[in-house]
């Protein structure tokens, strides 16, 4: 027996104990092809999704995995929120949910500012209130900020990396500093970077970072005050010391946030990874309106009006009443989040602000939400037909022959989306490197996953008639397909929840 064939035989026998056993193999020359048992794979995957429900794709929490998420957001009111600040807040919330799904206990040290920005959705009556879920805010609790500041200043005054000006005649000379007498105080970040063997330039810290001010002309610097706030938040964690800090910031605030990172590392004795999720600007497409002077609230109102107009054009006089108002609000919220989160963070988001740029023309968020609503409507129609005895009730998975799922699109939905979803969620976070601020978090992948899934689902749904005629011999295939689409709907809902999107059940 050829060696390749022997290997295939051994693997097939061993795979009986695997989660997904090998159904058969083919050996040719030095090539070995392994084939999963489709029927077993379908059933095991459906069981996994059914049993875990909203938790499918999430890792269980692990001791020691604590993440602190902070951002460059500053206090503001909903009417003054810029589009860039809205992108920062949405990205920060998405990052928190990704970390929580990867088993981290997540704390937000800037929750107050984030909530203030996201509350603009409430101003326009959208059902879009963000759900923190497993994320805890450290903003609301009080702390003795003065004592934290004094503690950090004690560290700074004795640090070999601290320099200052002690009101001597040598005005330009930086001397070792006393926290009580100094009118100026700074740390030599370049020296600190070299000492800690942290990367500079390229994927590392900005090579232009030199001195980081703690005190200037008897006033505390904004960098130092942010570090005081972060350290106070860390102290409130007590024994739950963070294992990683994630900074979410606009590209224009990247330099400032790296200074915060380094100053906190030094004064707070924080030798853990600090990673920076940096996002680009929010701009308008060429000849598609002008983003200049457009506030986030104005943009949300624009999209709501466009969604209303598009819905009236498509559905006519049916678009009225509280139900439609809620559907339009929820859908618009989801579309906006897709617009601002669907691009690789470091790239600029380019909005279509023209009159024809209404959300239903968007093949991104609206298309995903439409396909989710389509599945919701399908199951609603099925339940209604069950009530009037057109169909029997959907049998349990054990009593359903999933081996009847023989269409290539059905296997593609399982193999490309349902099975790998947990791995995709895990891959969105990756591993953290303590020597560089470059982020391993890929915050655009969930949007890409949903777009691709919706495309393939739409092609399958348009070609295959799921709800068949009321003939008994057609029911087994229908039941198998309903179980497949039930699993697809659950995975779509779980992915949308990571984006803080409440999907509509009708469109």
Textual characterization of the structure:
- By secondary structure, the chain is α/β, with parallel strands linked by helices.
- Helices cover 46% and strands 12% of the residues.
- It has 16 helices and 13 strands.
- The longest helix has 24 residues, at 475-498.
- It is globular, with a radius of gyration of 27 Å.
- The model is unreliable at 165-178 (pLDDT under 50).
Run of helices and strands: HEEHEHEHHEHEEHEEHEHEEHHEHHHHH
Radius of gyration: 27 Å
Q: Could you say which structural class the secondary elements and strand pairing correspond to?
A: alpha/beta
For the biggest β-sheet, the strand order reads 5-4-3-10-11
How much helix is in the residues?
A: 40-55%
Question: Can you tell me the residue ranges where pLDDT is under 50 for at least 5 consecutive residues?
Answer: 165-178
Largest sheet: 5 strands, parallel
**Which geometry do the CA atoms define?**
globular
* Count of alpha and pi helical runs: 16
Give me the count of strands: 13
Q: Strand portion, in percent?
A: 5-15%
Mean pLDDT: 86
Terminal CA distance = 60 Å
Task: Tell me the layout of helices and strands.
Layout: H1 3-14, E1 22-28, E2 31-36, H2 38-52, E3 66-71, H3 83-101, E4 105-108, H4 111-118, H5 120-123, E5 135-137, H6 145-158, E6 162-165, E7 184-188, H7 189-196, E8 211-216, E9 219-220, H8 222-236, E10 244-250, H9 254-267, E11 274-279, E12 282-284, H10 296-315, H11 322-341, E13 349-351, H12 365-387, H13 408-418, H14 421-427, H15 445-463, H16 475-498
Parallel strand pairs: 3-4, 3-10, 4-5, 10-11, 12-13
Antiparallel strand pairs: 1-2, 6-7, 7-8, 8-9
């Amino acid at each position: 027996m050829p060696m390749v064939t022997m290997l295939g035989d051994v693997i097939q026998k061993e795979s009986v104990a695997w989660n997904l056993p090998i159904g058969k193999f083919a050996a040719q020359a030095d090539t070995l092809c392994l084939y999963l048992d489709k029927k077993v794979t379908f059933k095991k995957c459906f069981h996994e999704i059914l049993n875990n429900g909203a938790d499918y794709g999430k890792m269980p929490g692990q001791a020691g995995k604590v993440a602190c998420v902070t951002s460059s957001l500053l206090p503001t009111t909903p009417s003054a929120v810029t589009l860039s600040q809205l992108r920062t807040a949405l990205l920060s919330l998405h990052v928190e949910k990704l970390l929580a799904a990867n088993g981290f206990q997540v704390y937000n040290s800037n929750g107050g500012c984030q909530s203030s920005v996201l509350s603009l959705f409430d101003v326009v009556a959208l059902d879009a209130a963000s759900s923190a879920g497993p994320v805890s805010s450290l903003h609301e609790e009080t702390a003795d900020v003065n004592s934290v500041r004094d503690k950090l200043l004690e560290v700074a005054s004795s640090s070999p990396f601290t320099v200052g000006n002690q009101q001597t005649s040598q005005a330009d000379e930086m001397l070792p500093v006393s926290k009580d007498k100094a009118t100026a105080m700074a740390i030599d970040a370049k020296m600190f970077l070299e000492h800690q063997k942290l990367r500079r330039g390229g994927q590392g810290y900005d090579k232009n970072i030199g001195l980081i001010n703690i005190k200037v002309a008897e006033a505390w610097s904004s960098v130092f005050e942010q570090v005081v706030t972060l350290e106070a938040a860390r102290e409130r964690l007590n024994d739950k010391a963070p294992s990683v800090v994630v900074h979410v910031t606009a590209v224009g605030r990247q330099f400032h946030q790296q200074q915060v990172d380094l100053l906190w590392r030094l004064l707070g004795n924080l030798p853990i990874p600090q990673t920076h999720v940096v996002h680009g600007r929010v701009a308008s497409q060429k000849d598609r309106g002008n983003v200049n002077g457009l506030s986030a609230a104005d943009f949300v109102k624009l999209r709501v009006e466009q969604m209303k107009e598009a819905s009236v054009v498509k559905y006519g006089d049916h678009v009225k009443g509280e139900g439609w108002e809620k559907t339009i609000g929820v859908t618009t919220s989801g579309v906006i989040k897709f617009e601002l989160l669907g691009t690789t963070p470091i790239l600029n988001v380019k909005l279509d602000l023209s009159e024809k740029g209404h959300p239903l023309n968007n093949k991104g968020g609206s298309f995903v939400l439409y396909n989710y609503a389509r599945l919701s409507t399908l199951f609603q129609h099925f339940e209604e037909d069950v009530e009037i005895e057109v169909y029997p009730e959907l049998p349990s998975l054990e009593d359903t022959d999933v081996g009847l799922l023989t269409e290539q699109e059905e296997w593609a939905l399982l193999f490309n989306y349902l099975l790998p979803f947990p791995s995709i969620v895990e891959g969105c976070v990756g591993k953290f490197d303590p020597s560089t601020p470059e982020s391993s978090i890929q915050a655009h992948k969930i949007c890409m996953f949903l777009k691709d899934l919706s495309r393939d689902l739409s092609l399958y749904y348009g070609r295959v008639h799921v709800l068949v005629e009321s003939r008994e011999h057609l029911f087994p295939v229908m039941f198998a397909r309903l179980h497949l689409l039930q699993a697809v709907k659950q995975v779509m809902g779980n992915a949308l929840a990571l984006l803080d999107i409440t999907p509509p059940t009708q469109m």
